[in-house]
Amino acid sequence: MQVMVLIFGMLAFLGGMLVAAQGPIYARLAEGLGRNYLLAVFLAFATAALVTGIIALVTGSFRGLSASTLGGLPIWVWLGGMFGAIHVVISMQSIPVLGVTLFLVIVVTGNLVGAALYDHVGAMGLTERPFSLTKAFGLALVVLGVGMVARA
């Protein structure tokens, strides 16, 4: 169990490093396209869709896909891709102004506040995990950290 926690912890860390690279990459892509943010997002997501589609095809991931499976999903599951696209547009415009570090500190703060809210209400099928004073204190420290990074 501890080995799995370490492996997935390292993968999560790597994922975080890759997310930190996305913003500057997307910002440069948009700049190269005359600051056409929507075209940049389309091209980035088309590339991602193509690559993941090929991998899914090769690994057989499409075998279990059916119209009834797709029709049985709640409509809100399709918002994830749209939210990702919105985030990418925001990153392209914000990173040149804020820098990667401040942008990501603010994003992580938003992630944590959203997560606490989603946990509290059991949103999107999650198990309800009530908000507590300890969580509030931790989030307050995160917001304090944003202020420290912004002043640095």
UniProtKB/TrEMBL annotation:
InterPro entries the record matches: YdcZ (IPR006750)
Keyword Ribosomal protein: no
Assigned GO CC terms: plasma membrane
Membrane-spanning residues: 37-58, 70-90, 96-118, 130-150
Organism domain of life: Bacteria
Keywords: Membrane, Transmembrane, Transmembrane helix
A Pfam family annotated for this UniProt entry: DMT_YdcZ
Protein name according to UniProt: Transporter family-2 protein
Species assigned in the record: Roseicitreum antarcticum
Biological classification of the source: Bacteria, Pseudomonadati, Pseudomonadota, Alphaproteobacteria, Rhodobacterales
